[in-house]
């Protein structure tokens, strides 16, 4: 069968690889242009405390493509990570978020960083420069990293995290528990908070084991002085159970969806006026 194919013809496997490569090249080329054309924008998703008050926001990048509409990060971040585009993208996101933060003096802002950004020597000076240039209080910035970052270059990454923390920047461990090394990471990397992966939050209410597990995560984190965010809170029940488990902050579609800067302004203003419903996001998904 496959022997009969003869030489000079790509196997199905090779065809797949070539297609992937071509796809990557196309996205890379378009993304390079998008950064220059200003097609990248940020959506902001509020994080609230147990009483429903907004205390922070997470910046989530969006690509408003001229032909394809809004493209989610899952479709272009992996491509950016395979090239040096992630550095430009990361810098853009941080600068934009720091500029936008000025409007919301009471809130801290989370910005996602890729593992590859932390592999660069210059990451700390880049952050320092943008904080200075935008006049941002470092204590209001939380850099979100994932535990996969610990896999390689552990020592360099640790040093860079330490350097950022000594500037006052907070470090948040994203998607906590989704990988294998969550607790090990807590032991060797300096972090201020963990964001319990939404796969755990999604199971709250489906079994008592889930509640016990989340409580245990919260207890361990608190015992080592680390704050806990429950992410991916989609229902009233998940919210209630995550509060009962002792999480400090809550993020998810049930509370508020990622929204434009303009929508965030309205959202925060409504809350300050006391008119914001405690839960149930009315804004459209972005
Ligand atoms: P993440 O950092 O864990 O961000 C949370 C993701 O979960 C966001 O998806 C958000 O829209 C989504 N989400 C929030 N609440 C809920 C919920 O209740 N249910 C469900 N099902 N999902 C919820 P998004 O915006 O598509 O981002 C996906 C991932 O892309 C992020 O995961 C982050 O890892 C990455 N990302 C986003 N923006 C950036 C960025 O500026 N730089 C880098 N390096 N990565 C980014
Ligand atoms: Mg995040
Ligand atoms: Mg997350
Ligand atoms: Mg994630």
UniProtKB/TrEMBL annotation:
The EAL domain covers 24-272
What keywords would UniProt list here?
A: Membrane, Transmembrane, Transmembrane helix
Which superkingdom? Bacteria
Looking at the keywords, is Plastid present?
no
Does this entry carry the keyword Transmembrane?
yes
Task: List the protein's name.
Answer: Bifunctional diguanylate cyclase/phosphodiesterase
Question: Which organism does this sequence originate in?
Answer: Jiella pelagia
């Amino acid at each position: 069968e496959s022997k009969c194919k003869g030489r000079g013809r790509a196997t199905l496997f090779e065809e797949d690889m070539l297609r992937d490569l071509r796809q990557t090249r196309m996205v890379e080329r378009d993304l390079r242009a998008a950064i220059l054309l200003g097609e990248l924008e940020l959506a902001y998703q509020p994080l609230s405390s147990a009483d429903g008050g907004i205390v922070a926001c997470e910046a989530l990048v969006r690509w408003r493509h001229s032909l394809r509409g809004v493209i989610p990060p899952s479709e272009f971040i992996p491509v950016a990570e395979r090239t040096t585009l992630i550095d430009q993208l990361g810098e853009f996101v941080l600068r934009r978020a720091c500029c936008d933060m000025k409007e919301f003096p009471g809130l801290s802002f989370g910005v996602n960083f890729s593992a590859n950004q932390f592999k660069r020597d210059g990451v700390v000076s880049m952050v320092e420069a943008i904080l200075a240039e935008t006049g941002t209080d470092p204590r209001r910035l939380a850099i979100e990293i994932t535990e996969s970052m610990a896999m390689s270059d552990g020592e360099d990454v640790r040093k860079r995290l330490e350097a950022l923390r000594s500037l006052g920047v907070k470090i948040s461990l994203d998607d906590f528990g989704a990988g294998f090394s969550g607790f090990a990471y807590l032991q060797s990397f300096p972090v201020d908070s963990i964001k319990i992966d939404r796969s755990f939050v999604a199971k709250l209410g489906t079994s008592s084991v889930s509640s016990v597990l989340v409580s245990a995560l919260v207890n361990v984190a608190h015992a080592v002085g680390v704050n806990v965010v429950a992410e991916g809170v989609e229902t009233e029940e998940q919210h209630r159970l995550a509060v009962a488990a002792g999480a400090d902050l809550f993020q998810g579609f049930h509370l508020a969806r990622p929204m434009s800067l303009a929508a965030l302004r309205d959202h925060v203003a409504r809350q300050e006026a006391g008119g914001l419903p405690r839960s149930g996001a009315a804004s459209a998904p972005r």
